[in-house]
């Protein structure tokens, strides 16, 4: 089984959202227009673009079709992008989160 750390998954979601946002903007669509074409609300599109929501496969399929790309185009090259194309403020926020004092965290039992 392949596992991904929470931080890596957050970066991946951010990169997917950023890709969706770039594709939407390159088509001259607002979040509202894209949401309307998909039968979704604008807030859901915003959450996907911000990496705050993990879209279902059916949503990705609909997004790709509406944006005129293949689903795989949304993911193409994201492995490296998720690691390197994070804004400075996002990197700083992630660094602060990773460098918290362990005393601030409740003690957890080891996972098996």
UniProtKB/TrEMBL annotation:
Protein name as it appears in the record: Putative Transcriptional regulator, XRE family
Domain HTH cro/C1-type: start-end pairs: 20-74
CDD domains noted in UniProt: HTH_XRE
An example Gene Ontology CC term for this record: cytosol
InterPro entries associated with the record: Cro/C1-type_HTH (IPR001387), Lambda_DNA-bd_dom_sf (IPR010982), TransReg_Diox_bact_type (IPR050807)
Pfam families for this protein: HTH_3
Keywords associated with the record: DNA-binding
GO molecular function list: DNA binding; DNA-binding transcription factor activity
């Amino acid at each position: 089984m392949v596992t991904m750390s929470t931080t890596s998954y957050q970066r991946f979601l951010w990169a997917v959202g950023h890709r969706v946002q770039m594709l939407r903007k390159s088509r001259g669509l607002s979040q509202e227009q894209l949401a309307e074409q998909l039968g979704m609300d604008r807030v859901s599109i915003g959450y996907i673009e911000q990496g705050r929501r993990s879209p279902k496969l059916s949503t990705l399929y609909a997004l790709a079709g509406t944006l005129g790309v293949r689903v795989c185009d949304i993911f193409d090259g994201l492995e490296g992008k998720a690691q390197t194309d994070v804004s400075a403020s996002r990197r700083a926020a992630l660094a602060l989160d990773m460098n918290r004092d362990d005393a601030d965290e409740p003690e957890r039992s080891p996972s098996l």
